[in-house]
Amino acid sequence: MNSAFYFPTQAAPTAQWTPAKAPRFPVKRTGRYPGQTLGETAGGTVHVQDTGTFREHWELVFDRITPADHSALKTFFQTVQQAFNAFEFVDATGGVHTVRWINDFEFEETVPDRFSGTITLRKE
Fold first, then answer.
1. CATH architecture assignment, domain 21-33+54-124
2. What are phi and psi of 28, to 5 degrees?
3. Within 13 A of 34's CA, how many CA atoms are on the CB side?
């Protein structure tokens, strides 16, 4: 199954993007605690100040998408207004996740009429 993006939800989308080509594998999935500060005393005791909650991220790398796909993706990006609006992301296994688009829209024309770039999503 290919990944897909639906705004605001898959059940009632006003905007969507289903790439014609799947992202490059492996898809990078990471998690971290933002705002976590670590310190260590002279005796070796570790102190942690946690000011955030666990956040899961996906990094989807797309290679050589068509101009039509690139245009549809740019329209979707403008609709969700980067991280302003949450939307639903369907991963390659069919799992549905509410996410926000974290990075800028940076797709380069790597060969004539083909665009490559990365989309970073943060799970809500």
1. 2-Layer Sandwich (3.30)
2. -80, 125
3. 5
Total-model pTM:
0.78
CA–CA distance, 30 with 47 (Å, rounded to integer): 23
Residues 85-107: tens digit of each pLDDT: 999 999 988 999 999 999 999 99
Continuous segment of H or E residues that includes residue 80: helix 67-80
**Residue found under tokens 């101009």:** 67
CA 96, 64, 116, 25 torsion: positive or negative?
positive
CA distance 85 to 8: 8
Beta bridge partners of 74: none
Rounded CA gap, 57 and 68, in Å? 27
- State pLDDT tens for residues 9-46: 999 999 999 999 888 877 777 777 666 677 889 888 98
Q: Which amino acid is located at 62 in the chain? A: F
- Which DSSP state fits 42? T
Domain boundaries in the chain? 21-33+54-124
